[in-house]
Automatic annotation (TrEMBL), chain A:
Lineage, highest ranks first: Bacteria, Pseudomonadati, Pseudomonadota, Alphaproteobacteria, Acetobacterales
Predominant location: membrane
Span list, region Disordered: 1-20
Domain ABC transmembrane type-1: 89-301
SUPFAM superfamilies: MetI-like (SSF161098)
Places the protein is found: Cell membrane
Protein name: Sugar ABC transporter permease
Pfam families: BPD_transp_1
Family statement: Belongs to the binding-protein-dependent transport system permease family.
Keyword Transport carried by entry: yes
Highest taxon of source: Bacteria
Membrane topology note: Multi-pass membrane protein
The keyword Manganese is annotated on this UniProt entry: no
From TrEMBL, chain B:
PROSITE patterns tied to this protein: ABC_TRANSPORTER_2
TM spans (from-to): none
Gene Ontology molecular-function annotations: ATP binding
The protein's name in its UniProt record: ABC transporter ATP-binding protein
Family matches, as SMART domains: AAA
Automatic annotation (TrEMBL), chain C:
Topology with respect to the bilayer: Multi-pass membrane protein
Transmembrane found in the keyword field: yes
Segments crossing the lipid bilayer: 12-34, 82-104, 116-137, 149-169, 247-267
Compartments where located: Cell membrane
Protein name, entry field: Carbohydrate ABC transporter permease
UniProt entry keywords in alphabetical sequence: Cell membrane, Membrane, Transmembrane, Transmembrane helix, Transport
Family the UniProt entry places it in: Belongs to the binding-protein-dependent transport system permease family.
Domain ABC transmembrane type-1: 78-268
Length: 316, 360, 283
């Protein structure tokens, strides 16, 4: 090869040479410049948050605006001494524990069934996304149609197998079951998809080695699979807990919190306080309690999730 | 006048000072190799010159003007990366043409120059391919073409031959100097391979512990290393570093007396550095030679490398050229180790301070 | 090592799962093609003569009820959903992608705190913000406007965009950006020509997922808007609680409200799966 190349004029990067250009934006402020618009948009949201804190410390009922005044923790004291509030706490926790528990077990089962790739499992894992794409409020309405006492297909089926007088969302004894069922229908696919992605990302060697050694399946499941899947299980369940504890759409669309006070979870209770009883102070106090719970959960979730992310991105 | 000069540059990451008060200068058209073990700060140094990392202290001057605060795109510098850093979503043609596009070179002129550079590097037949369709050798040539096409005044090469196979590496080691000399480009080349450093550099800058240990021509770095540590970094097998004690007119090394012919250190104790090729092994006893056992023999190219063991346990490497093999067929099997005598060529030896390792 | 019995049980379980998760969608879809007579027939039967009456009534806005004809412009709710979701995603991408890049590439003072704050919005009880916001919006004229709702929708869409794309930007090699800048390109053109194209799968996943989340939102518009800006989720509820509307028309309304997201999901499921794990897992 002959390296005597005709020399083209060098490309100059500096215009003229004299009067050097300074960087338009210094590297130090660039990250702030990039992230500030996003942050400012959300600051608009932060102001109402502070307002809500103030509301929760006020006696503030829209029906008696002249009686509005600062009462410190009056709303909270009232809440903690009222049976209705503790009922709300109980229902919210029951809803959360039931939904997350069932979804976790069912999701893990589905993920394990879909683990091995085949035409059927590939098709099913695509179809499984569909319930997740249905708005929770719409999902509740769909189930409401199916459980209608007059023509609901589920009401008919339940009756046909001999369970009479099963009134789904309309009866206090079955209302919780009904909304949990809808939640399970909507969100189990989320857990299944997350765990399936986790399963398919696991290294194969431990399982192949266990199979060669003839290790019993129960040992493989509890001592190898579950520990390896644990970070995914944790992330998925924390994520769902955060959603479940503040569930509104499904319950409101299905029963509006009823029948009676059966399903008055935090946000539905607060919604009623604010829009039916116009008691903004008490509604805000309920939400503050909910906020403290979710904030604690968020912190735990973030720690976990950051770890998982680092592992997935290969630097850790 | 020097073209690129680095003036007392320092950079720390989390209290860990990677580069400390580093200064050096490169002349126009010079090929400087920065050589050092991994983790010595070579990559950080290149990033400081390129402008991706800002120094904590110090200045970078290019062609007489201070570019310390310039953005990378304002510096007339091109760089080729160890991992090639080809844009995966652009064809080889667009990769190579990227600097010209940035300089707003017209379409026809751009095509001509990309094709010229590609022809020079013998990749003109793969210009339409995406990087993932190229072999490692082709990727490397594409990356080089990209760094050459805009005729930069300074070219930074970050261990560009690291990830290519031995054949390509050998070819490029021969090709690169011709390519670059023809263009009179100033080059800063980073490598961990001492042979590459010796083959390519006008000068070699040895980087270790955050600073330069020696900046010199390859011959000087090899024949007059500034410290025992540098001496060990160049050469395979590595130089023998033997504790030596003054005894009368001679030296006592490995429990044997060696005569000194010529200048010797005026110290009671020092470290004597002898390159394996300066150890002459013979099966016959000679005066001033150290009695040894031949522990192992391996062929290295046309030479024979021997591991010798003196009576006091000191290990010495020796490397003999073809035709003078002491044990032509290798070691006999069995436990028996042949007895031999090793004569150290004192005139070609180096002497270092025992404690600091500095050249005496 | 899989016995035939095991395989049969497995297939059976998969079938049951398929039925449980797909039956409601299929049944409501069937209902939407039934007349009231078909729906009220006992036992319920999937065999009937399909009719488009329900859809015609919905699209024309003239709904027949047991007590005569009423006018409900459900199509307007559908249009609202399209406007709100599309605009929210566009705004979120414009705001969120640069911020995600900043969080991924620069370790700057306060960066992690900002990132955490932005994600924690995703998990705060929405009503907490909505109650005071209702007052403010009424005061400054943002109540019942698209603009106000799109702003509030950023609470759900922005964190999604931020956290999904951030992971993808982290995977773009810094060397590529440096190489491009040394070629002489400005930071801005490096961002658009290198960083964004290489993070495109993440941006697509984030965009899709936030579109679906925005489409499915219920509580924001329930509180901050009237029927003139409310999306299908709220519209459908009003529909079902209004008395005497034929059940087939309700079913058709529900079908119309989910069809856009379902179709989108089927065609983009690969991106969705990546997005759903919030960038925690790369498919």
């Amino acid at each position: 090869m002959d390296a005597t190349l005709s020399r083209p004029a060098p490309v100059s990067k500096k215009g003229g040479g004299a009067g050097k250009r300074r960087p338009l934006v210094s590297a130090r402020v660039l990250p702030y410049l990039l992230s500030l618009p996003a942050l400012l948009t959300c600051i608009g949201i932060l102001i109402p948050f502070i307002t809500a804190v103030i509301y929760s410390l006020e006696r503030y009922n829209l029906a008696f605006p002249q009686a509005r005044r600062f009462v410190w923790f009056g709303n909270f004291i009232h809440l903690f001494s009222s049976a209705g509030f503790w009922h709300t706490v109980y229902v919210s926790l029951a809803y959360t524990v039931l939904t997350v528990g069932v979804e976790l077990l069912l999701g893990l089962g589905i993920a394990l069934l879909l683990w091995r790739r085949s035409l059927l499992t590939n098709l099913l894992s695509v179809l499984l996304i569909l319930p997740l794409m249905v708005a929770p409020a719409i999902a509740a309405l769909m189930w409401k149609l199916m459980t209608n006492a007059n023509f609901g297909v589920l009401s008919y089926l339940v009756n046909a197998v001999g369970i009479h007088d099963f009134r789904w969302g309309a009866s206090p004894s079955t209302a919780l079951f009904t909304v949990v069922l809808v939640d399970v229908w909507v969100y189990t696919p989320f857990i299944a998809i997350l765990l399936l992605a986790g399963l398919r990302g696991l290294p194969r060697q431990p399982f192949e080695a266990a199979e060669l050694d003839g290790v019993p399946a129960s040992f493989v499941f509890f001592r190898i699979l579950l520990p390896m899947l644990l970070p995914y299980l944790l992330t998925a369940s924390l994520f769902r807990m955060l959603d479940s504890i503040q569930q509104f759409d499904i319950i409101y669309a299905m029963t509006q919190g009823g029948p009676g006070d059966t399903l008055l979870v935090f946000q539905v209770q607060s919604y009623l306080q604010a829009f039916t009883f116009t008691d903004i102070g008490r509604a805000s106090a309920i939400l503050m309690v909910l906020w403290v719970i979710t904030y604690a959960l968020t912190t735990v979730f973030m720690k976990n999730w950051t770890r998982l992310r680092e592992r997935a991105h290969g630097h850790a | 006048m020097s073209f690129l000069s680095i003036d007392r540059l320092s950079k720390s990451y989390r209290k860990n000072e990677v580069i400390r008060d580093l200064s050096f200068a490169v002349d126009r058209g010079e090929f400087l190799v920065v050589f050092g073990p991994s983790g010595a700060g070579k990559t950080v140094l290149l990033r400081l010159i390129a402008g991706m990392v800002r120094p904590d202290r110090g200045r970078v001057l290019l062609g007489g003007s201070d570019i310390t605060d310039d953005n990378p795109e304002q510096r007339d510098i091109a760089m080729a990366f160890q991992n090639f850093a080809l844009y995966p979503h652009m064809s080889a043609f667009d990769n190579i043409g990227s600097p010209l596009r940035a300089a707003k070179v017209g379409e026809a002129e751009r095509r001509r120059r990309v094709e010229e550079a590609a022809k020079l590097l013998r990749i003109d037949h793969v210009l339409g391919h995406l990087p993932r369709a190229l072999s490692n050798g082709q990727k490397q040539r594409t990356a080089l073409a990209r760094s050459l096409v805009s005729e930069p005044s300074l070219l930074l090469l970050d261990d560009p031959l690291r990830n290519v196979d031995a054949k390509v590496r050998y070819e490029m080691r021969l090709e690169l100097p011709r390519l670059l000399r023809a263009r009179d480009t100033t080059v800063v080349y980073v490598t961990q391979d001492y042979k590459e450093a010796m083959a390519l550099g006008d000068r070699i800058a040895v980087l270790a512990d955050g600073g330069f240990q020696q900046i010199d021509t390859p011959e000087r770095v090899y024949n007059a290393p500034a410290s025992a540590r540098i001496a060990r970094l160049f050469g395979d097998p590595p130089i023998n570093l033997l504790p030596a004690v003054r005894s009368g007119a001679g030296l006592r090394v490995a429990s044997s007396e060696i005569a000194l012919d010529g200048a010797a250190p005026d110290r009671a104790e020092c470290t004597m550095g002898v390159r394996p090729e300066d150890v002459i092994v013979s099966l016959e006893q000679a005066s001033g030679a150290i009695p040894v056992e031949i522990d192992a023999v391996t062929p290295l190219n046309d030479r024979q490398v021997m591991l010798l063991r003196a009576d006091d346990g000191t290990e010495i490497f020796a490397s003999q050229p073809q035709g003078t093999h002491v044990v032509p067929g290798g070691l006999p099997s069995g436990r028996e180790r042949p007895r031999a005598w090793a004569r150290l060529d004192v005139s070609r030896s180096h002497f270092f301070e025992t404690a600091s390792g500095a050249r005496v | 090592m899989q016995s035939p019995a095991f395989r049969v049980v497995r297939a059976l379980l998969l079938l049951l799962i398929g039925i449980f998760f797909l039956f409601p969608i299929v049944w409501v879809l069937l209902m939407s093609f039934m007349t009231n007579v078909d729906i009220l027939r006992s036992p319920p039967s999937p065999f009937f003569v399909p009719t488009l009456r329900n859809y015609v009534a919905l699209i024309s806005g003239h709904l027949s009820t047991s007590s005569g004809e009423v006018q409900i412009d459900y199509m307007h709710n559908l249009l609202n959903s399209v406007i709100l979701s599309t605009c929210s995603v566009i705004v979120s991408l414009i705001l969120g992608v640069p911020a995600a890049y900043a969080f991924a590439r620069f370790k700057f003072r306060g960066g992690e705190d900002m990132a955490f704050t932005l994600l924690s919005f995703r998990f705060a009880p929405p009503l907490l913000v909505l109650l005071p916001l209702l007052g403010y919006f009424q005061a400054i004229g943002l109540y019942d406007t698209y603009f106000g709702l799109i702003w509030v929708y950023q609470l759900i869409t922005l964190p999604l965009v931020l956290w999904i794309t951030r992971g993808y930007f982290e995977d773009v090699s810094e060397d590529l950006e440096l190489a491009y800048r040394l070629d002489g390109h400005s930071w801005l053109s490096t961002f658009f020509r290198i960083s964004i194209p290489l993070a495109r799968p993440g941006i697509a996943a984030a965009g899709l997922l936030s579109f679906i989340f925005a489409w499915n939102n219920f509580i924001f518009a329930l509180i901050l808007g009237s029927s003139s800006v409310q999306p299908v989720t709220v519209g459908a509820l009003a529909f079902i609680t209004a008395s005497g509307i034929e059940y087939g028309q309700i079913a058709a309304a529900l079908v119309l409200s989910v069809i856009p997201t379902l179709i989108l999901a089927i065609f983009t499921q690969r991106y969705l799966v990546e997005g759903l794990s919030l960038g925690a897992i790369k498919g």
